[in-house]
Amino acid sequence: LKKIGVMTSGGDSPGMNAAIRAVVRTCAYHEIECYGIYRGYEGVMEGDFVKMDARSVKGIINKGGTVLKSARSKAFRTKEGRQLAYEKLTEAGIDGLVVIGGDGSFTGAMVFNSEFDFPVMGIPGTIDNDIVGTTHTLGYDTALNTVVEAIDKIRDTASSHNRLFFVEVMGRDVGHIALNVGVGAGAEEILIPEEDLGLDRLIDSLKRSKASGKSSSIVVVAEGDKIGKNVFELKDYVEENMTEYEVRVSVLGHMQRGGSPSCFDRVLASRMGVKAVESLLEGKSNYMVGLKDDIIQITPFDQAVKGKSKINKELLRVSDIMTV
Ligand code: F6P
């Protein structure tokens, strides 16, 4: 390989810049050229490339967002879009690709690889931590810390007013963020898509905690929770079925995706970037790099995108015990 392209695709996550830096610098270390691609697959199809060298990624390891911008591309899902992407890459002499993104981005990379035999490696960048083949996706740790900090602040006002708060957190259709911040911030209940607590049990549990002397409570709700009600309907339901609390809702939203990456995410990004480039140089393709047992390993894309990573059920029990 002589020229590697690097891009960020799908929802951004803290640590993406650190991963771009690692890819660019690993290319420089091995004396091959590196091109940044703007706005994910959209930029590939438009040939929106910029040559990057070791110095062009200075001062970004600590920055949230992505200097290469990100997008979710509809056009790349079409055969014509991928044909165009292939033409633009070959015109520019780019002969390998590192895609930093989530499962949608990897599915695109996999299809592209199968059609054009184009070498691709993936780095899992999403706050959701929903990818098989890594215990941590890039940005997940930072998001957990951001959310815990936000809930700590909500608890201050909840307790001043003796209120019950439903705090909705991101995670798409998995509950990793909710479960971990629920334990980390000492939530009364944690509602996640993987477990159906049921409305009756929720009300019972809140009544019990009030009776045990608690004056305020936090319930963390994963955005993908399947209890059958959105967070505002939940508030209404609880208000109708118990009078013990005044209830408020806080939807944390996209602030969870921003901010300076944690040390963990910076180190992870650096390790993943090195592994992605060196795997391409070893002739590997169609894999995602990931962390398992503190070792950076690679998993074939088809396995990585097949299922969703499982939640740690032990945490549910820990949460139950902690809220005795
Ligand atoms: O996948 C990351 C994520 O932030 C999810 O947690 C959330 O469901 C989704 O992206 C939001 O997407 P958008 O930025 O398009 O609103």
From TrEMBL:
<feature type="binding site" description="in other chain">
    <location>
        <begin position="126"/>
        <end position="128"/>
    </location>
    <ligand>
        <name>substrate</name>
    </ligand>
</feature>
<keyword id="KW-0963">Cytoplasm</keyword>
<feature type="active site" description="Proton acceptor">
    <location>
        <position position="128"/>
    </location>
</feature>
<feature type="binding site">
    <location>
        <position position="163"/>
    </location>
    <ligand>
        <name>substrate</name>
    </ligand>
</feature>
<comment type="pathway">
    <text>Carbohydrate degradation; glycolysis; D-glyceraldehyde 3-phosphate and glycerone phosphate from D-glucose: step 3/4.</text>
</comment>
<dbReference type="InterPro" id="IPR012828">
    <property type="entry name" value="PFKA_ATP_prok"/>
</dbReference>
<feature type="binding site" description="in other chain">
    <location>
        <position position="155"/>
    </location>
    <ligand>
        <name>ADP</name>
    </ligand>
</feature>
<keyword id="KW-0324">Glycolysis</keyword>
<feature type="binding site" description="in other chain">
    <location>
        <position position="223"/>
    </location>
    <ligand>
        <name>substrate</name>
    </ligand>
</feature>
<feature type="binding site">
    <location>
        <begin position="21"/>
        <end position="25"/>
    </location>
    <ligand>
        <name>ADP</name>
    </ligand>
</feature>
<feature type="binding site">
    <location>
        <begin position="102"/>
        <end position="105"/>
    </location>
    <ligand>
        <name>ATP</name>
    </ligand>
</feature>
<keyword id="KW-0547">Nucleotide-binding</keyword>
<feature type="binding site">
    <location>
        <begin position="72"/>
        <end position="73"/>
    </location>
    <ligand>
        <name>ATP</name>
    </ligand>
</feature>
<comment type="subunit">
    <text>Homotetramer.</text>
</comment>
<comment type="similarity">
    <text>Belongs to the phosphofructokinase type A (PFKA) family. ATP-dependent PFK group I subfamily. Prokaryotic clade 'B1' sub-subfamily.</text>
</comment>
<feature type="domain" description="Phosphofructokinase">
    <location>
        <begin position="3"/>
        <end position="279"/>
    </location>
</feature>
<keyword id="KW-0479">Metal-binding</keyword>
<feature type="binding site" description="in other chain">
    <location>
        <begin position="170"/>
        <end position="172"/>
    </location>
    <ligand>
        <name>substrate</name>
    </ligand>
</feature>
<dbReference type="Pfam" id="PF00365">
    <property type="entry name" value="PFK"/>
</dbReference>
<keyword id="KW-0067">ATP-binding</keyword>
<protein>
    <recommendedName>
        <fullName>ATP-dependent 6-phosphofructokinase</fullName>
        <ecNumber>2.7.1.11</ecNumber>
    </recommendedName>
</protein>
<feature type="binding site">
    <location>
        <position position="103"/>
    </location>
    <ligand>
        <name>Mg(2+)</name>
    </ligand>
</feature>
<dbReference type="GO" id="GO:0003872">
    <property type="term" value="F:6-phosphofructokinase activity"/>
</dbReference>
<feature type="binding site" description="in other chain">
    <location>
        <begin position="214"/>
        <end position="216"/>
    </location>
    <ligand>
        <name>ADP</name>
    </ligand>
</feature>
<dbReference type="InterPro" id="IPR035966">
    <property type="entry name" value="PKF_sf"/>
</dbReference>
<keyword id="KW-0808">Transferase</keyword>
<feature type="binding site" description="in other chain">
    <location>
        <begin position="186"/>
        <end position="188"/>
    </location>
    <ligand>
        <name>ADP</name>
    </ligand>
</feature>
<keyword id="KW-0460">Magnesium</keyword>
<comment type="function">
    <text>Catalyzes the phosphorylation of D-fructose 6-phosphate to fructose 1,6-bisphosphate by ATP, the first committing step of glycolysis.</text>
</comment>
<feature type="binding site">
    <location>
        <position position="248"/>
    </location>
    <ligand>
        <name>substrate</name>
    </ligand>
</feature>
<feature type="binding site">
    <location>
        <position position="11"/>
    </location>
    <ligand>
        <name>ATP</name>
    </ligand>
</feature>
<keyword id="KW-0418">Kinase</keyword>
<dbReference type="InterPro" id="IPR012003">
    <property type="entry name" value="ATP_PFK_prok-type"/>
</dbReference>
<feature type="binding site" description="in other chain">
    <location>
        <begin position="254"/>
        <end position="257"/>
    </location>
    <ligand>
        <name>substrate</name>
    </ligand>
</feature>
<keyword id="KW-0021">Allosteric enzyme</keyword>
<dbReference type="InterPro" id="IPR015912">
    <property type="entry name" value="Phosphofructokinase_CS"/>
</dbReference>
<dbReference type="InterPro" id="IPR000023">
    <property type="entry name" value="Phosphofructokinase_dom"/>
</dbReference>
<dbReference type="InterPro" id="IPR022953">
    <property type="entry name" value="ATP_PFK"/>
</dbReference>
